[in-house]
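Weekly structure sync, notes
Attendees: PL (lead), two postdocs, one rotation student
Agenda item 3: pending single-chain targets
PL asked that the sequence for the first pending target be pasted directly into the notes so everyone works from the same version. It is reproduced below exactly as submitted, 165 residues in total.
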Amino acid sequence: MRLEEIERGQAVFIDANIFIYHLTGRSEACKAFLERCEVGEIRGFTGAHVILEVLHRLMMLEAVQQGLISPGNLARRLKEHPQIVKTLTEYSRHVSRIPEMKVEILNLELELIQASQEVRRSTGLLVYDSITVAMMERAGMNTIATRDHDFLDVPDLQVYVPEDT
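Predicted structure, written out during the meeting:
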């Protein structure tokens, strides 16, 4: 299903790629979706682990876009050059806008990490995605906005995707 098909008032978990596509200007659908969250038309939720993923990926993108490192094994290259990391600021500024979008950030607790093991066992999802599903289950949500097709195989999950990415 498409992002624009999400009904008014729906509680939706927002995956990292939705934020990244919006914050990098790559998707009008993601922008429109997050604007609907900001005006309260949709109740947006995400997890602390998603915010960390967005921070990490945007940091890598910023370093490449500024020509400070070349693509390929970005994390290793930045580790080897901490002086580059010290100069990067835009990624953090972008992520600080997420609460302004009226997206509630759910906490990540040890109990939830442990519960995600059962999700991995039953679905085959990797760690971050299984934490997302466990977090959604705990919050009583079954709707996710994502570009990650792995969630399509999770029973009883409604998956909405941007079609312009």
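Discussion points:
- Strands lie at 11-14, 43-47, 103-106, 143-145, 158-160.
- The chain has a mean pLDDT of 95.
Action: rotation student to compare against the earlier draft before next sync.
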